[in-house]
Design goal:
- The complex is a heterotrimer.
- By secondary structure, chain A is α/β, with parallel strands linked by helices.
- Chain A is built from eleven helices and nine strands.
- In chain A, strands 1, 2, 3, 4, 5 and 9 form a six-stranded mixed sheet that branches. Chain A has a three-stranded antiparallel sheet with strand order 6-7-8, with helices on one face.
- The longest helix of chain A is centred in the first third of the chain and has 19 residues, at 4-22.
- Helix content of chain B is 34%, strand content 20%.
- In chain B, a hairpin with a 2-residue loop joins β7 (164-169) and β8 (172-177).
- Chain B is α/β, with parallel strands linked by helices.
- The longest helix of chain B is centred in the middle third of the chain and has 21 residues, at 195-215.
- In chain B, the strands form two sheets. An eight-stranded mixed sheet of chain B has the order 3-2-5-6-7-8-1-9, with helices on both faces. In chain B, strands 4-11-10 form a three-stranded antiparallel sheet, with no helix packed on it.
- In chain B, 45% of the residues are buried.
- Chain C is an alpha/beta fold.
- Chain C has one domain (9-131): Rossmann fold (3-Layer(aba) Sandwich).
- In chain C, strands 2-1-3-4 form a four-stranded parallel sheet, sandwiched between helices.
- The longest helix of chain C has 18 residues, at 79-96.
- The radius of gyration of chain C is 14 Å and the shape is globular.
- Chain C starts with 9 loop residues before the first strand and ends in a 6-residue tail after the last helix.
- The chains are: A alpha/beta, B alpha/beta, C alpha/beta.
- Chains in contact: A-B, A-C, B-C.
């Protein structure tokens, strides 16, 4: 019982079941085992018995904050659209949160999507989640039938053969460049608490692309999105996406075409990413959810880099600061503004 | 219909000979772009080296990442084009393009083409796409962990929808003609199966067929009462983790829902959309419009939203229920077979691991 | 097609209070500028959202010019300051994805800067002409 994940799982189950037992929360959001190796499924425990199904491992790749607005609504007593809210405090929900998820909860609080006072956050330090595409690649695409997780290694069984992989080498790109791996807001701590990570260069992936020429970048981007099937898994896995009507569904005017042709796919991805500007915490859920393996996270990472470098902001780190795009400073950089050379106009 | 036996060299020669009359497509990694067709994960092949990679014993077990659905139900499909000056710009439906042959199709995927043809019985576009396509299947010797074709009425050596089925057998390949067209394609190549091989081949097929019959859950699902399934409490739990993306429906070979809209096409020089009809060679220069049919998904709220703003499937729970009920109840009640072929793509790629096999089990347990 | 015979189509989004008036002044003062721009008048540069710019590009624009009031001069006090943050990130994102830097341009032109407007339009037109037709999508 010295495996970190087992310790966290045990503590989590105990904490969740005590909250549910005492009635402090009506639901606890976490992950349960999936039906295939390397999968987990988001799971809402409503009884102390349910809480025993909660698990913690390196495959919790989705962002639980995504479920919170709907979950909080679902546990409120039923009422008609015009009925006043019930008197007294509304029921609470518990949730486990890593650094990025907790930052998303902060963003959701800032945007009035969740009520912090109705959440009991079990903070945890993420040790980086595993990218199953990387594991598949490491096994040359062989079918993985079983995977066992140790603290620093993964024992993978694929087509009869057993292979040991270094866990960190197959963690997601966003986890490898993460600096805030521990929850920034929490009510209770689960498992060992890690300090902020010192990622050598968190924007290296972005800088490598920035060094390319415009044509090379376009070639890279076109290649990246060419297999997009427009299933919107990236959008729906994102805790920042909660609009009633998404821009892709607007029909009058219609901003984005519906096909998977290059123009439509490119506009979709660029706009989706841009909507996350100043709010994205690089949780990587979009990329993990993508069935086609598109690395659309690089676009939001680029925005994260610019937001950090131009405006000094990191989303979700401080609930008292306004979100980047909802504020301004008179001295904001404006090097991008076109300055005409005076008197050089033609004719 | 004949069944012949070929060794690897003979098979390669036969495949190469098909290239002369057909555009031949096979599984690949990216997006095979050519003028006639661009389907993600399937590309046109021409050289012998490429054929080598798609030989039946070289293809990875289980299904390819994406299905062959877009060959028959393109995303998007141009139904009609017209211009502001009322001159028709392009030839419309029923264009008989180059005949094409798709290689390396798994029996489940082939079966999906047959199943989709039921609701698309009167659809000239689907029919045209089907008529110009020859399907050469590859039988499965082993199952991937997400495979469950036998539960849906299929079989790893199933023949539904195929023209030819290739099975690895002994030191070579058995090629089984299943339609007249398939029979013609095999020509006078190769020898018939000898007795030992034939016995093995028959035995394998029969044992699969027996398994499939035992496992097939179609009759039991059809026997269930529709309303008790519909009103069951299971949907709330099932839909809890769903994020309502369309990954399952878009990867599914048997999901065929669509929407239609008109799009203005910009036609100035240098544009990749130089012409609405896609032929690029037409003389039209008026601003033109194409009417496209593109994939839609019952997972999206917009799918059922009325102009009034009312949405009869307004919640996630309703939409999840519809997807499974359509596949496992409405479609079988109407057409006799499940609208699921057991390829397992939705299980493999669902971001939250919703497993249709578990749903089937749960539904079967509802009284 | 030779480089010089290409006439780019440039969509200019101008704010009502400064840049549109600046364009007006350029006309009244008879400053010459190329006829390649098509002006869309918007209430404020803060009104312009990225989907509008994409629509223009998708429907055949070769270049885009967005112009608002100088910082501090916004008729609505801060619309252009919000816009500035938005465009700073948006322009970088476009370039990151491989759209050429000169395709989409942002500038400030006040109601009294007719000449600046003419300069901007001339120079943006020339830059887009050099880039050639927009055929990314």
């Amino acid at each position: 019982m010295n495996n970190v994940n087992d310790i966290i799982t045990q503590e989590l189950r105990a904490f969740a079941s005590s909250l549910l037992e005492s009635g402090e929360v009506s639901a606890f959001l976490g992950f349960a085992h999936g039906s295939l190796p390397m999968t987990t499924r988001p799971f809402v425990a409503k009884t102390p018995e349910d809480a025993q199904k909660l698990v913690w491992n390196s495959f919790c790749v989705l962002n639980l904050a995504n479920y919170l607005p709907a979950l909080l609504k679902s546990i409120e007593p039923p009422r008609g659209p015009k009925d006043p809210p019930p008197e007294g405090p509304l029921p609470k929900a518990g949730v486990i949160a890593t650094g990025c998820w907790s930052r998303n909860i902060v963003v959701q609080t800032q945007e009035n999507q969740v009520d912090r006072s109705r959440l009991v956050i079990a903070g945890v330090s993420s040790r980086g989640m595993v990218d199953r595409k990387k594991v598949l690649k490491a096994l040359d695409g062989k079918e993985i039938t079983k995977i066992e997780e140790k603290d620093h290694d993964l024992i993978v069984e694929a087509d009869g053969a057993i292979k040991e992989l270094n866990r960190w080498s197959v963690t997601r790109d966003n986890c490898q460049s993460c600096v805030h791996s521990s929850a920034v807001v929490f009510d209770h701590w689960i498992g060992p608490k890690l300090d902020d990570r010192q990622a050598p260069n968190r924007f290296k992936q972005i800088e490598d692309i920035e060094k390319m020429t415009a044509d090379e970048r376009w070639a890279w981007f076109s290649k990246e999105i060419e297999t997009c099937i427009r299933c919107y898994a990236c959008r729906n896995a994102c805790p920042l996406c909660y609009c009633e009507t998404c821009f892709v569904d607007d029909s009058n005017p219609q901003w984005v075409g519906k096909s998977i042709e290059k123009a439509d796919a490119a506009i979709f991805h660029l706009l989706r990413a841009f909507h996350c500007a100043g709010r994205c915490t690089d949780c990587g859920a979009c990329e993990s959810a993508c069935p086609m393996g598109i690395r659309m996270r690089l676009l939001t990472k680029k925005l994260e880099k610019d937001v950090f470098e131009l405006f000094g902001d990191e989303a979700g780190m401080d609930a008292s600061k306004p979100l980047t795009m909802t504020t301004y400073k008179l001295e904001d950089p404006q090097g991008f503004i076109f300055e005409p050379k005076h008197g050089q106009k033609k004719e | 219909m004949k069944t012949i036996f070929l060794n690897e060299k003979e098979l390669l020669a036969l495949l190469a000979s098909w290239c002369e009359t057909f555009d031949v497509y096979a599984p690949n990694d990216g997006k095979g772009e050519d003028a006639a067709c661009s389907v993600i994960g399937w590309g046109k092949i021409a050289s012998k080296e490429e054929f080598y990679g798609v030989l039946p014993d070289k293809i990875a077990k289980g299904v390819h990442k994406t299905s062959i659905k877009p060959f028959f139900f393109p995303q998007p499909e141009t139904l009609v084009t017209f211009t502001s000056d009322n001159k028709p710009c392009a030839p419309l439906a029923n264009t008989v393009g180059q005949k094409r042959l798709i290689l390396g199709v798994r029996p489940c995927d082939a079966r999906s083409v047959m199943l989709n043809a039921m609701p698309y019985r009167d659809d000239p576009y689907y029919q045209a796409n089907q008529n110009k396509t020859v399907l050469v299947g590859v039988g499965c010797n082993e199952k991937a962990i997400t495979c469950f074709c036998e539960k849906t009425g299929g079989s790893p050596l199933g023949t539904d929808g195929l023209d030819i089925l290739i099975t690895t057998l002994g030191t070579g390949f058995a090629l089984e003609a299943l339609t007249n067209q398939g029979d013609e394609l095999l020509g006078s190549q190769g020898a018939a199966l000898d007795e030992a091989l034939l016995a093995e081949f028959t035995k394998r097929r029969e044992s699969f067929a027996a398994d499939a019959q035992k496992a097939n859950s179609t009759p039991s699902l059809k026997g269930k009462d529709l309303m008790s399934l519909y009103q069951s409490k299971i949907w709330q739990d099932l839909s809890q983790s769903c994020i309502n993306c369309g990954a399952c429906t878009f990867l599914c070979p048997t999901c065929y829902c669509f929407d239609i809209q008109d799009e203005a096409i910009r036609k100035d020089k240098g544009s990749s959309n130089a012409c609405a009809c896609g032929t690029g060679g037409c003389a039209c220069d008026a601003p033109s419009v194409r009417r496209i049919r593109y994939w839609d998904s019952c997972m999206f709220p917009l799918f059922t939203k009325h102009a009034s703003g009312h949405n009869p499937r307004g919640t996630k729970e309703h939409r999840v229920r519809n997807r499974f009920m359509h596949k496992l109840k409405y479609f079988p009640d109407r057409f006799g077979a499940l609208s699921c072929v057991g390829c397992g793509r939705c299980i493999r790629e669902c971001p939250v691991n919703i497993d249709i096999r578990e749903v089937m089990t749960t539904l079967l347990a509802v009284d | 097609m030779t480089e010089n015979s290409f006439e780019p189509k440039i969509i200019a989004f101008l704010c009502n209070w400064c840049s549109y008036a600046g364009a007006d002044l350029a006309g009244v003062s008879r400053f010459q500028y190329p006829s390649n721009i098509r002006i869309v008048r918007v209430p404020c540069s803060g009104r312009i959202s990225p989907p509008m710019l994409f629509s223009a590009l998708k429907q055949g624009a070769d270049g885009i010019l967005v112009s608002g009031c100088h910082p501090g001069d916004c008729h609505y006090i801060s619309g252009n300051l919000f816009a500035r943050r938005r465009f700073a990130l948006f322009k970088n994102l476009l370039e990151f994805a491989g759209i050429e830097p000169g395709r989409v341009n942002f500038t400030w032109v006040s109601a009294s800067e007719g000449e600046r407007f003419a300069d901007v339009v001339s120079q943006v037109t020339e830059a887009v002409r050099q880039l050639g037709p927009f055929n990314r999508f």
